[in-house]
Amino acid sequence: MPLFHNILFPTDFSKRSHAVAPAVRAMAERNQAHLTVLHSFELPIGGYGDAYAYMPSTIEDFHKASQSSMDRFVKQHFSDFDSDSLKVVVESGGPVESIVEYVDENAIDLIMMTSHGHSRFRALLLGSVTAGVLHDTHCPVWTDVHCDESPAPAGPCQNIVCAIDLSQKSVEPLRFAKRLACENRANLYIVHSEPAIEDIIHSQSATRFHRFLEFRAREDFEPLAQQANLEIPLEVVSGPLGESIADATRRHKGDMLIIGRGVIEERLGRLRTDAYDIIRRSPCPVLSV
Question: Which residue, 20, 127, 131, 226, could crosslink 117 as a Cys pair with Cβ 3.0–4.6 Å?
């Protein structure tokens, strides 16, 4: 049974959007899902003095230009999709608000988008639209690798890594990861990161405490694994969370990283409050649920 039925692909027609499009196409085809490609354009009010400076023809010109860009984008990447499997939406408004509203009103079960925008600081920060969508929607969000050099892989997943924080809310991403692994017949690895203990002399007490943390983590994992009906061992790593999860993902040659997320300001556990950093450092696309 397909994991996703309605996929939303917000695009700004950037080079990164073009690079991600093959992965979006592959996901929609594998799941036989309905795909919506959405572009939301903001009217630069400041350039005209105030909102009343707009004439209908000006707004119409913006819409026509956006529609023309959308037509070229869709023709390049999704020209063979029929009307039953593809919908194209161009509208005015803030991108985050438009995406969240569309998700809420159209039963979207996956958003696929780039991890950054046009900012000169994009190597350090998530794009503001991506960050806003991650924060404001409860829908699963797929984001591509956070760099310019590596295009998102379009093929099926072979190695899936699921990073959890051992809270009760970890059951959902565990179940999600298991189902995705089954759908793709992929290897699944479960990883949990504990803080590193700074000890320059590597004392025996530090070693014993590391062992205690690993024992406690595996003990906390058992009831979660039972609820998710998993029989996969937990791998415990240590160090800065984003770095340690990224290192584990590279070691397992992961081509998909699954994490849980909540509202970022809430104290929902170390993993959830550091979701942005994990996405930014991941060597492969991240699916946050």
Answer: 127
In a 3-state reduction of DSSP, which class is residue 136?
helix
Query: Which residue do the tokens 């104290």 mark?
Result: 267
Residue 195 pLDDT more than 70? yes
**Alpha-carbon torsion angle 101, 105, 108, 113, nearest 10:** -20
More confident residue, 89 or 93: 89
Asked whether 228 and 171 are in contact (CB, 8 A), the reply is: yes
Cα–Cα distance for residue pair 35/9, rounded to 1 Å: 7
Task: Judge contact between 20 and 73, C-beta under 8 A.
Answer: no
Is the sign of the CA dihedral 240, 244, 245, 246 positive or negative? positive
**Which three-class secondary structure state does DSSP give residue 275?**
helix
Phi and psi at 10, nearest 5°, equal: -75, 135
CA distances for 260 relative to 97, 100, 102, angstroms: 22, 19, 22
The rounded distance, in Å, linking the Cα atoms of 31 and 3 is: 7
Q: Tell me the whole-structure pTM to 2 decimals.
A: 0.86
